[in-house]
Amino acid sequence: MKLLEHQGKQFLAQAGLPVPRGRVVTTPDGARQAAAALATRVALKAQIPAGKRGKSGGIRFADTPEQAQAAAADLLGHELAGTVVDTLLVEECADIRTELYAAVLNDPASKGPLVLFSAEGGMDIEEVGARDPEAIRRRAVDIRSGLTEAAARGLVGGLPQDVQDTVTAALLAMYRLYRDIDAELVEINPLVVTSAGEVVALDSKITIDPGAVSRHEELLSEVLAHEDEGGTVLERRGRALGLQFLELDGEIGVLANGAGLTMTTLDAINHYGGRPANFLEIGGDAYTKATPALQLVLDNPRVRSLVVNFCGAFARTDVMTGGVLSAIEELCPDVPIFFSIHGTGEDKAIRLVREQLGVEPYDTMDDAVRAAIDAAGADDTPARGKVAG
């Protein structure tokens, strides 16, 4: 469950992290009133579950209440990153001295929490890491002992002495929040130091483990009420169909059975240098929804190739494959599709692909993934209806 910025900031404030003064509004006049009440230069931020809002025009600045009203009128009702903007956060601008980056997240490598910190905040952290991996400091945390003050202080070494204490306290507060609400991610970018030496969270990105929501129903009541409205257009369509679908920012579509296999497929795509376009599980009886599921993937204009990865134990791969083949026949996708099929019913499933599409599934998931990555990066992407094996 992804929290919107203003929702995440409520949790940050409760955890003891300072956040800017602000108001949530849904109308241009509400933005004017908020700016007037704050009586300072304000930022108007579209409240959508997507990053890089500044680059997409989702953050505006205003020096007067009238400018805030005009900016809100321009933002509200318009679509950004596949989501119609219906809510804005109007908050005071900070007097920034230094921008930092901080995050606590689940780490598959260490099988526990990982704390990240960088003195280069306010930028895409991926770009920072690609340019200078040492600019991002990492600390794996033993979940049994938690993040110690000494470990947190070790991450912020090199900062001016007058802010090391407050930044250390901020990291410890972020870790406590991550633990207390069963978060998968608590990220602040930028975490700023003001000219007065105060540490303030200018942004908030928090994701909570969906399986833990029932343990925090009272705490999350406001978030739960908004959840049905959140997500991109495709994600809302997926929910309406009863499908587990998340839209990502890559070019390689994924259809797989079971959440674990789907995540493994995404990991493999990332490992071999590709970027997945979605999470979509069609295991169990979801094969009966293969056509709308495939349509969801294809309606993402970024998708340039597709991996179909089935591995069956109790689930029969031939039944799932039959559903996908029917969907392919109906929709005639114009991107290449690469199959990997193993498990119960695999002989029949492979035969169906051979007979109906005239192609051979790959022996391993890795081979199918690499082929899909190559196809996604090729200028001569196969013509409409072309399927690869």
From TrEMBL:
GO terms for molecular function: ligase activity. Pfam families: ATP-grasp_2, Ligase_CoA. InterPro entries: ATP-grasp, ATP-grasp_succ-CoA_synth-type, ATP_grasp_subdomain_1, Succ-CoA_synthase_bsu_CS, SUCC_ACL_C, Succ_CoA_ligase-like_bsu, Succinyl-CoA_synth-like. Gene3D superfamilies: ATP-grasp fold, A domain (3.30.1490.20), ATP-grasp fold, B domain (3.30.470.20), Succinyl-CoA synthetase domains (3.40.50.261). Keywords: ATP-binding, Ligase, Magnesium, Metal-binding, Nucleotide-binding. It comes from the Bacteria. Residues 9-224 form the ATP-grasp domain. The keyword Magnesium applies. This is Succinate--CoA ligase subunit beta. PANTHER family: SUCCINATE--COA LIGASE [GDP-FORMING] SUBUNIT BETA, MITOCHONDRIAL (PTHR11815:SF10), SUCCINYL-COA SYNTHETASE BETA CHAIN (PTHR11815).
